[in-house]
Design brief:
alpha/beta, 6-stranded parallel β-sheet, about 850 residues, single chain, binds zinc ion, 7-stranded parallel β-sheet, 33 strands, GIY-YIG endonuclease, globular, 27 helices, about 20% strand, binds adenosine-5'-triphosphate
Length: about 850
């Protein structure tokens, strides 16, 4: 049984076999449990087990190691139960988790927690409910008496926890009983913290079995119905949809009742035929991935430029693991991805296609779906846990050799990746900020590729400076595409001077004359407009005109954003809400005004300026629902919207024929962010949003509203001069010791007491200074937002020499020092948040 490479047989002591178990909790090590003799033959690395943790808790863990070394500090408890007969997690994944915990300074249990959908992590809090499909009189499975006890109980109670089931049966763990009930489709498991599972259920109709078994019965039926036209028609329709003469087995699954009714029969006809036993009606839980509409695949031929790029990528792959595809907006990178994916799938390997955010998935998923159909699993952040489990199982079973997903899809149980594509690799949403592991999915994907010996393709019109640097250093292959697909031209840029318009009285509701004229022209031609402003809400803050008082959040060091919808002020950091004050709380004046422009106000302004236009807004507030995005984008695509106003969500990946004008309301705001990356980000954001304009025949226009039209960065963007801009910025980064020339680690020290936080941070800096490696330590300094959710925050920035071993050694010492500090009574309750390669 122990062919597994991770099995360690080095030491054989008395006391039998032990398993080191990874538990989903933030503790430094794996916990060791004793393996009962009867489990020994079955146990494998990567299987899920249930174990006792602490006094009362039961948790699901993963077997990480099997050995014969009893733990020194405590007596090993026995495992409670094996949940899997085959491993849920493969050895490559355990290696990947281990790497991630070491690289990003966190615990492997935290990685496990992020990696496994909660549906796979049963705990004493997990619950079961009756499967809505279950009919005690119809089930084909016999139930054993203990199973019956649980089922009886569920007749009167909506739900039972694992613990309750155990008590009911007087068992330490009732898992095997529950497992069997799940297998018999009698119960469903759900996680208490998540909403209860509401399976997707379809009413279906099938012909009664007797007509399938005997042809004569069916002929008899036709005779019987020869005088009942409506019923006969329905029967014929059914036979058209389900060709039982050729394939009798198809009858079992029947057809969706809705579909059958759509062919024109009335519900009462169906009802009558069910009543007389011709048809059977039944319910079926259906997979969320069944029945996805797949259109006819569109055959796409690569252009010469695309073909050359594809050949160049393949040539680089001969020598290098990673290639950066730097292709301008609209150059047609997606079609190249598709061709590469096809080749890798044909060779029998798996492919992972990473996207930064769901906003992007809608259009690309549709495009990929047309080519790859049911081979493709989709994994995004708005999916419910059950859908995640379904994708997980689909990867495990081989149903989905291709997965398109957001950053957490790097954790799926791939075992033979051949290619990983990271689209829009510069995107900041690849970085997870909270909670740990604070990983960057692009960087993690490169490690994942290395573990699988898979190729990694990074794609972007505006590569991150890190990737471009690596490409110029020859670490990655570099392929560049400088022209748009077809005859499409890059858009024309207009730098529209806000101050000069203001002087001339041409500024109306914060729009310059040029922006208004361009929008009007687009509307006249039935073209579409995208307006970008990276602030949601109505106004970024509220202000007393007399004394300058600004309402702030009670729990955070930030001003409250005014949202017109709901007429309230909200904190974007903690969710705190308050009504708009009628009077100033400082001086009592009633002259309260809203200042600045969020997307809500821009939408309102535009509707006053262009009353005939159909305007919609796309930001976090309008896309909360699962299909919020999709609906908005569909509407926009169908031409039901003339102007789309939005936050960074509108800047990425969108590919619509009719967009000819893009307006950037306040470009300067993007530039003046106190961060060494502000320039890089501004270049990326503005280039990306501009890239949505004029992607077909007609050349688009981009209007950048600014107070400083002479700022050289705008010139670089307009000229599309990425390389020069990069070289300039990199000069500064080198001089001032910023990544990629050094490795950065940010440590945030948080506590509800300002003093303790500051003292703890100072103390840590002293300890870190004594670590003997080449480094610069900055801080502690009060964070830019000094308090969030009632915790004061001090930050320490460490800049490390990148040479071999230095960062690894430093991180190890850092974690040790933090652990030691937390041993001190004063500092015990401090939260230390370590962020490696901070965003
Ligand atoms: N070989 C081809 N045949 C037909 N149409 C193509 C081909 N290649 C690209 N296109 C079309 O050109 C447009 C731009 O391509 P695509 O969206 O792949 O660009 P991109 O490089 O991903 O741009 P961005 O970085 O802006 O997202 C799309 O509408 C796409 O359908
Ligand atoms: Zn707050």
């Amino acid at each position: 049984m122990f062919e597994n490479t991770l099995f360690d047989n080095s030491e054989s002591a008395q006391g039998g076999h032990f398993a080191d178990v990874i538990l989903p909790v933030p503790i430094p090590k794996m916990f060791t449990y004793k393996i009962q003799k009867e489990l020994l033959a079955e146990i494998q690395i990567g299987q899920r087990v249930m174990v006792h943790f602490g006094k009362r808790k039961v948790l699901t863990g993963i077997i990480g190691r099997v050995h014969q070394k009893p733990p020194k500090e405590y007596e090993a408890k026995p495992l409670l139960e094996l949940l899997d007969s085959n491993p849920t997690v493969n050895p490559l994944q355990i290696k990947f988790w281990t790497w991630m915990s070491e690289y990003y300074c966190c615990h492997i249990g935290e990685v496990m927690n992020a990696a496994l959908p909660s549906g796979l992590k049963l705990s004493s809090e997990s619950k079961i409910q009756l499967n809505p499909n279950f009919d005690p009189y119809e089930t084909k499975y016999p139930m054993d008496p203990r199973e019956q006890v649980i089922l009886d109980q569920l007749e009167t109670k909506d739900e039972l926890s694992y613990e309750e089931c155990g008590k009911l049966l007087q068992l330490k763990s009732a898992h095997h009983i529950i497992k069997s009930l799940v297998a018999k489709e009698a119960v469903l498991i759900f996680d208490q913290v998540k909403e209860k599972f509401s399976p997707k259920i379809e009413n279906r109709i099938r012909l009664h079995g007797k007509f399938i078994e005997e042809k004569a019965a069916l002929e008899g039926l036709f005779e019987l119905l020869s005088k009942k036209a409506k019923q006969e028609e329905l029967l014929l329709r059914y036979l058209q949809m389900v060709p039982i003469y050729q394939k009798p087995e198809l009858n079992e699954a029947g057809v969706d009742k809705k579909l059958l009714l759509e062919t024109g029969s009335s519900p009462s006809t169906v009802k009558t035929m069910v009543k007389y036993g011709v048809f059977e009606e039944f319910k079926k839980v259906i997979s969320r991935f069944d029945g996805l509409q797949v259109d006819e695949p569109k055959l796409v031929e690569l252009s010469d430029a695309q073909d050359q790029s594809m050949q160049a990528i393949k040539a680089h792959f001969e020598e290098k693991q990673t290639v950066l595809l730097h292709g301008i907006t609209g150059s047609g990178k997606t079609e190249i991805y598709i061709k590469l994916i096809e080749e890798v799938l044909d060779s029998g390997s798996q492919v992972l296609f990473l996207l930064p955010e769901i906003a992007l998935t809608t259009q690309i998923v549709n495009r990929l779906q047309k080519v790859f159909g049911s081979k493709m699993g989709v994994f995004h952040s708005k999916y419910s846990d059950n859908e995640r489990v379904e994708v997980w199982q689909g990867v495990l079973s081989g149903r989905f050799p291709l997965v398109v997903g957001v950053r957490s899809s790097i954790f799926l149980p791939f075992d033979s990746l051949g290619l990983i594509i990271v689209d829009e690799e510069h995107e900041t949403s690849y970085k997870q900020f909270d909670p740990a592991p604070r990983f960057h999915a692009r960087d993690a994907a490169i490690m994942l590729g290395y573990l699988h010996q898979a190729k990694v393709l990074l794609g972007s019109a505006t590569p991150s400076f890190e990737s471009y640097y690596n490409a110029r250093q020859q670490k990655y292959g570099l392929v560049e595409m400088a022209h748009r697909y077809g005859n499409a031209q890059l858009p024309d840029f207009v730098l529209s001077d806000i101050l000069s318009d203001k002087k001339k009285n041409l500024l109306k509701l914060d729009t310059t004359r040029q922006l208004r004229e361009k929008i009007q022209a687009a509307l006249n031609n039935q073209e579409q407009v995208i307006i970008f402003q990276n602030r949601r809400g109505y106004a970024p803050f509220v202000n007393c005109e007399e004394c300058g008082w600004i309402p702030e959040c009670e729990h955070c060091d930030v001003s409250l954003t005014y949202h017109q919808f709901g007429e309230e002020m909200r904190c974007h950091y903690c969710g705190f809400k308050e009504k708009l004050p009628k009077k100033c709380e400082a001086c009592g004046s009633v002259s309260i005004t809203t200042v600045g422009q969020g997307t809500e106000r821009i939408e309102e302004n535009l509707s006053m300026l262009f009353p005939e236009a159909r305007i919609a807004r796309m930001d976090m507030d309008t896309t909360r629902s699962k299909y919020g995005f999709q609906k908005l984008l569909e509407n926009f695509g169908q031409g039901n919207i003339d102007i789309l106003v939005g936050t960074q969500m509108v800047t990425k990946g969108l590919d619509f024929d009719k967009v000819t004008v893009v307006g950037i309301v306040d470009a300067d705001r993007i530039l003046y962010f106190p961060d060494y990356r502000a320039g890089e980000r501004a270049f990326q954001q503005i280039t990306q949003v501009a890239g949505r304009a004029g992607r077909r025949e007609k050349t688009g226009s981009v209007i950048i509203q600014t107070r400083q039209p002479d700022n050289p960065i705008y010139q670089s963007i307009i000229k599309g001069d990425y390389r020069n801009f990069y070289l300039q910025e990199m000069g500064e980064r080198k001089n001032f010791f910023y990544p990629p020339f050094i490795k950065a680690i940010k440590i945030s020290v948080k506590h509800k007491d300002h003093n303790i936080a500051e003292r703890g941070a100072k103390h840590l800096v002293n300890l870190l200074n004594s670590i003997e490696v080449k480094k610069i330590i900055l801080g502690p300094e009060k964070a830019l937002i000094g308090k969030i959710k009632n915790l004061y925050i001090f930050e320490i920035l460490v800049k490390l020499d990148k040479s071999h071993q230095v960062p690894a050694y430093f991180k190890q010492e850092l974690m040790r020092q933090i652990e030691e500090l937390q041993g001190d009574k004063t500092f015990r309750s401090i939260r230390f948040v370590v962020d490696v390669d901070p965003g």
